[in-house]
Design brief:
Mean pLDDT: 85
Low-confidence stretches: 205-218
Order of helices and strands: HEEEEEEHHHH
Distance between the termini: 78 Å
Structural class: alpha+beta
Strand order of the largest sheet: 4-3-2-1-6-5
Number of strands: 6
Shape: flat
């Protein structure tokens, strides 16, 4: 077992928003000894295999990073870089006539790269929407627990200490849901903004016929 593996065993695993998931009990490694996945004892939910790329070691805690977040980062990074290169290439071609023929092939390559990301983006958008629906359902459920605790407290079925415990725990959970929801919405907004930039950069602007005619007469 590698030193990384030894450092992981027995540590608590939490999600990015502080919720406890389980405890790391072992690792699966590649033939070269690098870690492929981490086995996490999640209690009644059983043993979960989490890809090592979704684990961040933070002191005595292992942080689980959701797959949608990694995929979003990859997509945005690749699309932003391709768009910057595309704009740089257009700028070079417009400023230097000698490069126009040389940039034609690269122009199509970058446009092809941007088009190729569309399917990846489509799948990611579906995952983000599905996760938002899950979070919405969870929000409804946790508010039901909070409301029922309030009813039980007002009817003298539970004491104030118990009620305050429920209220504190449900409030923390609501904060986790709100945080994740906000992050997903921000990613959706970044994707939409980036798509607008791509459209503006890749769709050539043409002068109206009348304007072109007037410029010719000048």
């Amino acid at each position: 077992m590698t030193n990384d593996g030894k450092a992981i065993i027995g540590k608590q695993v939490k999600d990015m928003y502080g919720a406890f998931l389980g405890k790391a009990l072992g690792t699966i490694t590649h033939i070269d000894g690098t870690i492929e996945s981490v086995g996490v004892d999640c209690g009644s939910q059983g043993l979960q295999h989490i890809p090592f790329e979704q684990i961040v070691v933070q002191g005595d805690i292992l942080i689980y990073v959701p797959k949608w977040r990694l995929e979003s980062q990859r997509l945005l990074k690749e699309k932003e870089l391709t768009l910057r290169r595309f704009k740089a290439m257009i700028s070079i071609a417009s400023d230097y006539d000698d490069f126009k023929e040389d940039t034609a092939i690269i122009h199509e390559k970058y446009k092809s790269n941007l088009s190729g990301l569309e399917e990846t983006e489509k799948q990611l958008k579906a995952k983000l929407e599905a996760r938002l629906e899950e979070l919405n359902d969870q929000m409804k459920s946790v508010k039901m627990f909070e409301f029922d605790a309030k009813v039980q407290f007002n009817s003298n079925e539970i004491g104030e200490a118990t009620y305050e415990s429920v209220r504190r725990l449900t409030t923390e959970y609501i904060e986790h849901i709100t945080h994740e929801t906000s992050e997903i919405v921000n990613i959706q907004r970044r994707i939409a903004d980036l798509n607008l930039e791509v459209q503006q950069a890749t769709v050539p602007t043409t002068k109206p016929l009348e304007e072109s005619a007037l410029s010719y007469l000048d």
